[in-house]
Amino acid sequence: MNLSDSRVLDADVATVWAALLNKDVLQTCVPGCKDMTGNPDDGFDATVVQKVGPVKATFKGTVILSEMKEPSSLTLTGEGKGGAAGFAKGGADVRLEPQGDQTILHYDVEAKVGGKLAQLGSRIIDGFAKKMADQFFDNFQQKPVSGEVEGRTLLVQFLREDLHMTGTHVGCDTSQCGACQVHVNGQPVKACTMFAIEADGAEVGTIEGQANADGSLNVIQQAFQDHHGLQCGFCTPGMVMTAAALLKENPTPTEAEVRSYLKGNICRCTGYHNIVKAIMAASGQDVGAIAAE
Amino acid sequence: MPKDTGIGASTKRREDLRYLTGKGRYTDDIRAYGECAAVFARSTVANGKIIGIDTSEAEKMPGVLAVFTGEDFVDVGGNPAGWLINSRNGEPMKEPKRPVLAHGKVRHVGDAYAAVIAETEEQARDAAEAIIADIEDLPAIVDMREALKDEALVHDEIGTNQCFDWGWIEDNRAATDEAIKNAHHVTTLELVNNRLVPNAMEPRCSIGSYNPATDDYVLQTTSQNPHLTRLLISAFVMGIPENKLTVIAPDVGGGFGSKIYHYGEEALVLAAAKKLGRTVKWTADRSEAFLTDAHGRDHVTKIELAMDKDGNFLAFRTETMANVGAYLSNFSTATPTFLHGTLMAGNYTVPLVYVNVKTVFTNTAPVDAYRGAGRPEATYSLERVIDKAAREIGRDPIELRRQNFIKPDQYPYASAAGLEYDAGNYDALMDKMEEVADFAGFDARVKESDAKGLWRGRGVNAYIEACGIAPSNLVGQLGSRVGLYDAATVRVNATGNLSVMVGAHSHGQGHETVFPQVVGEMLGIDPASIDIVHGDTSKIPFGMGTYGSRSLAVCGSAVVRATEKIIAKAKKIAAHMLEASEGDIELKDGNFTVAGTDKSVGFGEVALKAYIPHNFPIEDIEPGLEETAFYDPANFTYPSGAYCCEVEVDPETGKVRVDRMTAVDDFGNVINPMIVTGQVHGGLAQGIGQALLENTHYNADGQLETASYMDYAMPLAEDLPMYHVDHSQGTPCTHNPLGVKGCGEAGAIGSPPTVVNAVVDALQRGGKNVTHVDMPVSPHNVWKAMQSA
Amino acid sequence: MYNFDITRPTTVDEAVAALSADEAQPLSGGQTLIPTLKQRLAMPSVLVSLTAIDEMKGITEGPGTLKVGGGTTHGDVAQATKGSFAGLHTLASKIGDPAVRARGTIGGSVANNDPAACYPSACMACAATIHTNTRDIAADDFFQGMFTTALDEGEIVTAVTLKVPEKSSYQKFEQPASRFPLVGVFVAKHADGVRVGVTGASNNGVFRWAEAEEALSSNFSPDAIEGLSVSAEDLMGDLHGSPEYRAHLIKVMTKRGVADAS
Ligand SMILES: Cc1cc2nc3c(=O)[nH]c(=O)nc-3n(C[C@H](O)[C@H](O)[C@H](O)COP(=O)(O)OP(=O)(O)OC[C@H]3O[C@@H](n4cnc5c(N)ncnc54)[C@H](O)[C@@H]3O)c2cc1C
Ligand code: FES
Ligand code: FES
Fold first, then answer.
1. Ligand 1, atom 37: nearest CA belongs to which residue?
2. Is B4 contained in some domain?
3. Is residue B539 pLDDT above 90, yes or no?
4. I need a labelling partner for B286 at 20 to 30 A (CA). Which of A117, B265, B568, B677 fits?
5. Neighbours of A (≥3 Cβ pairs closer than 8 A)?
6. Residue C239 and residue B109: Cα distance in Å, rounded?
7. What are phi and psi of C246, to 5 degrees?
8. Residues B510 and B529 in one domain
9. Other beta carbons less than 10 A from residue A73's beta carbon
10. Nearest ligand, CA of residue A266?
11. Taking CB atoms and an 8 Å limit, are B693 and C248 in contact across chains?
């Protein structure tokens, strides 16, 4: 059977994407999930207790993420074996579509069951699959980014270690380099200088969510490429995030304003010339005059 | 008109796509199943005798898997110096062992004496704090002059703090002394080339793993040259057979020299991986980077310039003390010698050069090559003393330089410091610089500054550097223990696209874009179908990595040679396919054509044929289309340039602002002008950083006072101007196939003296008789200079 | 970091209660505290985050005064004082960088009393009152030397009320690395006299330059202090500036502040 539906989630696409890849989020969203281990690259092992009609069984299974097109689509496949109860296989093609600050999550679910479960009859199976899927996405809708955060977990650690979003970098321990710069509720924030817990309920934007929905570079990213505003790329995510915050505050900054706004972002490679140029170009200004070679 | 993809085109970088979207894969981004963490226990004193290290508490802490100390590595080798230097008296340099973990003694703050491996980094940190180290604090040896008295020793076993006392060119010593004694005018300058921390934005990181079933090791590490790291670990430090060790340098977030070298942490994670059968990761934090990355520069120099009554240069004599820190890092002995002394004739027809360098062990972090390596030191000394000389004898600084320049018709030119320059045109660079720097508008700008209560000054310089660091033959004679060739394999895949495996490593330089421009142009195919593979010793030929502005000049030449071999073989195949004679086959726009006919086959068809060699004349042509070339150049390349800087000095506070910075460089031919310009920008920022901001300060106890960005002043966007960069005056290198010279270090070499010359000029214009200010020319230093003028 | 718990109370009362725990410490913007924790230089058992307490945020104008909630960020202060309170606007908009300003708070700044912090100079020059959960303290009494304040254990800075001057200017001469003030001078001309707060310079933390205040109160022009000089005694000396240099800069920055405010 197939079923399709969609949900509107109150978070941007990058945040939702990260949540989809997060073990802790998945664990709390899979109905009846008792335990989950693993990671998005190698897949997750899960233990799920389910009751369908008369059957109650503990399923041991795997959840695999595939066809990943960050941050717009992926396929979730799960397979569980419940001993005598039989097996359940299911897949969901998930598509994320930005809508303002929110995200529309579309899903197409396909489910197959075998063994005793299948013998319960298609009426129950379809209903069960739909219920499971709806429950999963209902749960998911509640918590785009969450997970158990240890008190001392910094936002940057949470992004890198728990969500496996490694685009946000760490370049210092004195809060001065800006390699970790992200947006929290639209404001520029150093993810190394904020506890993850404090971002509870906030909207966190990272470099992973900057590209256009079709995966192409956004205006700022494109300007960085066009004007060679990066070399080793290590400072780049922070630079792009800072530039985005600047242009939101000040759509046509002067050269001096750009330089001043970059005060918390160190680049050792470019000498800043091309970064400044790229940001001004991204703001639609003609950079030929100010940055003659 | 340049095409947008071939040689000479500013092709946009393909690597940008991953970096801009957060998809770069730097070492610390790599996660392995079952990975555990290493944390090092590091000395908090500069000099200390290890009485005992008690790890018993640490071993019992939660999550702890293993604790290592220096004892565990007494039977393995040390990390060697890559360059053997002999003293003036013929004695070889002193080369104390540099162990994986300190044993017997700790020799600088940050010297690691133990390592903890635990399930998580925080657990390892907790346990590292529980190690009880009984270390007897000894007086720190910090100042080089004091160190040379040998009253206390960094390494007891060598009996001295002097590593070597080197003379260059020793045979010219007496003649140089004589020339200086008899000269009409001698200008003398004492200066300090400040100690710098390279500060690549990505801190070092190493991941070791081991497969007991195959006895294979893998090291993923932040390296500029994975093959050299493998060689050092295999042949010197750990004895792991080279065929059992793969070294991978994935995306690397900048190096600037600091990631050329092998460091003990790399050996440690491998040893721990083997012991535990787990993947072990160590990531430095910024404080560790400050304490343990190889630093740069740190020369104390006295230079004298002798002139005749007409201002002709007669001799340069230099005496330098160079700090090597507590241990010899891999290229630390080459930097103050052959990368410095051999450049001490500059761009000039001076007949005599003599350089004496004493290298000194101190209780500080090792000092090694940092962007420019030796050449900034040479340029700074020369161009500062020339500027001072011009002022002393009342000559225009540019005219004095021009008078002594080597002229275009004098090439090849044997410099008095022992190098043979192949090509150059320094007057043309100066002319262009005067134009780009808008000399015409200078007086008006001085007035504008005056109106703001600021003093404007202008400084210029001319530099030459030796780069594309190579000829194995030459460097071998000079003491190098490695060859400095490079290598490339061009693999034409059956479907006509290419994988090019190169020995150079890209960590910001854009090889993934530039090398395909070269190969694409040679083959007449779209560079988009060519991919560069680098950084993995299991995939690439044995090359020597990226530093010394060598990637394109040396490795790029290997790429050209390998591609030439491909063309030659492809022509054979095409001749066979077209039933023509090989000599009649021409390659044009990606097609092989029989000369004078319209018979042709496309590159793709030839590629396919190479892998489906049905009815091949196999006695003449082997199947496949893959070629490797090793390229060892005949000489260094010699980029040169003329720079100009205009500063404004605030007479009340001493604050200096760089208002205009002009760099006119001769890089020979340029493959991708956009990237070359970017390289110059980055070098300029580092050079201006050295001149105005950056300084590494150890106090008398050997404590590093500038161990974070709170006290180590990094150049920020606000501190820097838009630059004026030109490379239109190229004189192609005469001995490599691309005619290229290398552009990575120029900016950092040419800018420091230019900036300081400008500051001195501003102070002079403001009526202060200041003839020198040591770097960094910070507000405080300028103010002090003004106070005493 | 050592391990600890974090709580996020939503009222001052809850926060005060939470702070009664052993080794509890308030966390505001974290722009000072988190780097300290990362270096393992602090070992709290509980961090009591003040960032969810709405009553500590925001800016209210009173008659001739401005009351800034202790949890108000530098960025919000900069925004709110644009065009109305020149000195404070400059000060707030030059602290650190945009990200620091988005998190760091006035409460954290004054409670920390870093000898190079900017806000204390404004508090001194604008005769500020520091409000805590238990009392009101005059700035002159509140700042008691480097990293030392009148705050008791567990006491929270809930707001700061500044007297709005007729004219004001903040002059920050940056330390080249940290970009904190090497010397920062806040000049405020009030109806009843001029006050000059100096930060970054003294071993005893922020202070008022009394002689300059006197001279400027009778003649608010840079010339008025031409003949004065600051003693280098007790001023800080470090890699970035000797006591003598700082003394010199105090005068230069004060003159510039007066010129800017005039
Ligand atoms: C890169 C960088 C640059 C900076 N540049 C400058 C600068 O130029 N000028 C400048 O002045 N500052 C500068 N700062 C410091 C910055 O202003 C901090 O935000 C500020 O000093 C502390 O405020 P916070 O809210 O972040 O406090 P936190 O870091 O959260 O706390 C600081 C201390 O105060 C205590 N505390 C916090 N809030 C309260 C409260 N309401 N009541 C009682 N105690 C409290 C905490 O327990 C802690 O001990 C910079 C910081 C960084 C990271
Ligand atoms: S890592 Fe966050 S500012 Fe450097
Ligand atoms: S591009 Fe390398 S640090 Fe900015």
1. C108
2. no
3. yes
4. B677
5. B, C
6. 19
7. -65, -40
8. yes
9. 15
10. 3
11. no
Cβ atoms of B645 and B708 closer than 8 Å: no
User: Would you say residue B134 lies in a domain?
Assistant: yes
Contacting residues for C240 by C-beta, under 8 A, at least 6 apart: B711, B778, B780, C175, C176, C177, C182
Same domain membership, residue B510 and residue B608: yes
User: Could you tell me which chain A residue has the CA closest to the CA of C6?
Assistant: A151
Q: CATH number, domain at B328? A: 3.30.365.10
Q: Which amino acid is at B587?
A: L
Query: A120 vs chain B: nearest CA distance in angstroms?
Result: 39
Strand partners, B594: B585
Q: Count chain B–chain C contacts defined by CB atoms under 8 A.
A: 45
Token pair for residue A200? 């509870």
Closest-lying ligand 1 atom to the alpha carbon of residue C118? 11
Q: How many residues does chain B have?
A: 789
Token couple for B525: 């195919």
Rounded to the nearest angstrom, the minimum Cα separation between A197 and chain B is 18
Q: Which of B342, B374, B406 lies at the terminal end of a domain, its last residue?
A: B406
pLDDT digits (tens, 9 = 90+) for C189-247: 999 999 999 999 999 999 999 999 999 999 999 999 999 999 999 999 999 999 999 99
User: Residue B780 has which token pair?
Assistant: 């405080």
Which of B600, B631, B662 is the last residue before a domain boundary? B631
Which of C7, C23, C31, when mutated, tests ligand 1's pocket best, judged by the most ligand atoms within 8 Å of its CB? C31
Residues 251-270 of A with CB under 8 A from C: 261-265
Distance of alpha carbon A75 from the chain centroid: 15
Nearest CA in chain B to A219: B20
- Cβ neighbors of B641 (< 8 A, separation 6 or more) are B429, B462, B463, B663, B664, B665, B666, B746, B750
Distance CA A290, CA C7 (A): 50
Residue of chain A whose alpha carbon sits nearest to that of C34: A193
CB within 8 Å: C177 and B710: yes
Whether A188 and C47 lie within 8 Å, measured CB to CB: no
Which of C204, C213, C198, C207 lies closest to C249, judged by CA? Answer: C198
Identify residue B474 by its one-letter amino acid code.
Answer: L
SS3 readout for chain A: CEEEEEEEECCCHHHHHHHHCCHHHHHHHCCCEEEEEEECCCEEEEEEEEEECCEEEEEEEEEEEEEEECCCEEEEEEEEECHHHCEEEEEEEEEEEEECCEEEEEEEEEEEEECHHHHCCHHHHHHHHHHHHHHHHHHHHHCCCCCCCCCCCEHHHHHHHHCCCCCCCCCCCCCCCCCCEEEECCEEEEHHHCEHHHHCCCCEECHHHCCCCCCCCCHHHHHHHHCCCCCCCCCHHHHHHHHHHHHHHCCCCCHHHHHHHHHHCCCCCCCCHHHHHHHHHHCCCCCCCCCCC
Arithmetic mean of pLDDT, B436-448: 98
Question: What domains, with CATH codes, occur in chain A?
Answer: 2-141 (3.30.530.20), 155-282 (1.10.150.120)
Count the domains in chain B: 4
Does B154 lie in the same domain as B121? no
B169-215 per-position pLDDT tens digit: 999 999 999 999 999 999 999 999 999 999 999 999 999 999 999 99
Instruction: Provide the terminal-to-terminal Cα distance of chain B, rounded to the nearest Å.
Output: 55
Question: Complex ipTM, two decimals?
Answer: 0.96
Q: Whole-model pTM?
A: 0.89
Residue A88: predicted pLDDT: 67
B30/B70 same-domain check: yes
The residue range of the domain holding B349 is: 141-193+295-406
Instruction: Please tell me whether residue B475 adopts helix, strand or coil conformation.
Output: helix
> Does A168 contact chain C (CB < 8 Å)?
no
Give C208-225 as a DSSP string.
E-HHHHHHHHH--SGGGG
Domains of chain C (ranges; CATH) run 5-49 (3.30.43.10), 56-163 (3.30.465.10), 167-261 (3.30.390.50)
Residue B471 lies in a domain: no
